[in-house]
């Protein structure tokens, strides 16, 4: 039995058959990737990879409770499968009772394609994209700019089996395109990114044209000091901030008084209004174009996920509904502690309920303010307020009387996404976007641009 010839569902079944624990969960992740990279208007590298990771969760019942042990390994062969299962069982027996222990999930219908082979990507995913990219290189060269960036496509087929009879499977395509244009002297830089499932809906020529305009804006430099400015946050920046907010939305942490969603004096802020705008922040595994796993896949326990919840169905959930905090992320264990509903986190995030205005329309309606390109190096400063700090990057532009009149310097910012929602005065059209900061971890997002009247640019940054 080699990783290449044995089907993932067979690996899952054999691992379950080998188990001697009271409970067992097996997750096989079959991954394939294809990528292109370029610099200075020329392709530099391309490649295709394949891999498999097997995770075994063993649960052992005891007088004081149920313990769990988790072991993950890649490229598991026939000789290594039983030692992997035994290692998970040994880890469970050597651990104390698991705080998040729950009965393993039951009653979820089997995926009809569970026994099918894994989905795979290949360089063919770039069949239309690559020639269009080559044409963009030629246009950029003629226009006196240099293009840098990469395109990556990944397909992960996840097979999940449990000793309680679950047999589930999900195929997750994930594509990212990041394109950076620079002036030949490297003093001007502009960035654009896209998230895609199959590279059929991305147009490198359109992105290059957008970047050419931005490099043109940057020919005039206007130095500005730190301060609070009316600021237009594009969808990518809004996504980066609200993804971090969602990662911080644990129901248990809120009840324990440790987050921005904790109510002073006890309890949570569920039901409180976070913004006067009629915005809804939601997740839905079936969101068109942003589809994600419809069941929990937890390779470890911690924070807002539990290995005991593996296979639990994920429903469409409004986290903020029409401006009010509606739900916090909760495992089954967390729900029992907090009294809040079970609400597993999902693999996508959508903010809608704004106007139908494009970012260009919002620029045209601005008397004086700043237009950002993206955010970078975001870090948490204070969990009690969810104060974040980070940098602007690849272009901050001055808007005067409805037009972009030049590029200003970059800034360090200090802001809370919850505070921004509360102060935002306008939201534009929701569109699919690529979160630049979190693109290695979370790519399926749709956001509007936001207008914030007093975004806190706390200091000047010398970055390009």
From TrEMBL:
Name the residue ranges with Low complexity bias.
Answer: 92-101
SUPFAM superfamilies cross-referenced by the UniProt entry: Putative modulator of DNA gyrase, PmbA/TldD
Molecular-function annotations in GO: metallopeptidase activity
Tell me which Gene Ontology terms the entry assigns under biological process.
proteolysis
Extract the ranges annotated as region (Disordered).
Answer: 92-118, 172-192
| Pfam families according to UniProt | PmbA_TldD_3rd
* Ranges for domain Metalloprotease TldD/E C-terminal: 227-458
Top-rank taxon of the source lineage equals: Bacteria
**Which PANTHER family has this protein been placed in?**
CONSERVED PROTEIN, TLDD PROTEIN
Descriptive protein name? Peptidase
């Amino acid at each position: 039995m080699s990783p290449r010839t044995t089907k993932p569902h067979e690996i899952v079944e054999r691992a379950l058959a080998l188990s001697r624990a009271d409970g067992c969960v097996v997750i096989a992740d079959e991954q394939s990737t294809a990528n292109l990279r370029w610099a200075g208007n020329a392709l530099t590298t391309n490649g295709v990879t394949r891999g498999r990771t097997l995770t075994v969760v063993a649960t052992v019942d005891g007088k004081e409770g149920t313990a769990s042990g988790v072991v993950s390994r890649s490229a598991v062969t026939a000789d290594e499968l039983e030692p992997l299962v035994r290692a998970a069982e040994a880890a469970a027996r050597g651990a104390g009772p698991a705080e998040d222990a729950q009965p393993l999930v039951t009653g979820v219908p089997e995926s009809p394609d569970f026994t099918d082979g894994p989905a795979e990507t290949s360089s063919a995913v770039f069949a239309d994209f690559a020639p269009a990219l080559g044409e963009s290189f030629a246009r950029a060269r003629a226009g006196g700019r240099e293009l840098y960036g990469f395109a990556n496509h990944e397909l992960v087929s996840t097979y999940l089996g449990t000793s309680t009879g679950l047999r589930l499977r999900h195929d997750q395509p994930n594509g990212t395109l990041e394109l950076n244009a620079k002036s030949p002297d490297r003093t001007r830089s502009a960035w654009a990114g896209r998230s895609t499932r199959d590279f059929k809906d991305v147009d490198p020529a359109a992105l290059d044209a957008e970047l050419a305009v931005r490099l043109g804006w940057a020919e005039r430099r206007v130095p500005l000091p730190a301060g609070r400015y009316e600021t237009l946050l594009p969808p990518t920046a809004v996504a980066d901030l609200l993804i971090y907010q969602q990662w911080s939305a644990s129901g248990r942490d809120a009840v324990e008084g440790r987050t921005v969603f904790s109510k002073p004096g006890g309890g949570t802020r569920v039901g409180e209004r976070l913004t006067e705008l009629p915005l809804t922040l939601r997740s839905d595994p079936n969101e068109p174009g942003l589809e994600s796993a419809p069941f929990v896949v937890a390779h470890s326990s911690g924070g807002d996920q539990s290995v005991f919840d593996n296979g639990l169905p994920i429903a469409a959930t409004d986290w903020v509904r029409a401006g009010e905090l509606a739900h916090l992320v909760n495992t089954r264990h967390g729900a029992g502690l907090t009294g809040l509903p079970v609400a597993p986190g999902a693999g996508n995030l959508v903010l809608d309920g704004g106007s139908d205005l494009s970012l260009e329309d919002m620029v045209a309606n601005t008397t004086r303010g700043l237009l950002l390109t993206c955010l970078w190096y975001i870090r948490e400063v204070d969990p009690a307020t969810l104060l974040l700090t980070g940098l602007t990057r690849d272009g901050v532009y001055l808007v005067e009387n409805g037009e972009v009149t030049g590029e200003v310097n970059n800034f360090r910012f200090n802001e809370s996404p919850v505070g921004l929602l509360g102060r935002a005065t306008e939201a534009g059209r929701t569109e699919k976007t690529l979160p630049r900061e979190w693109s290695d971890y979370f790519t399926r997002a749709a956001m509007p641009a936001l207008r914030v009247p007093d975004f806190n640019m706390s200091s000047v940054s010398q970055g390009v």
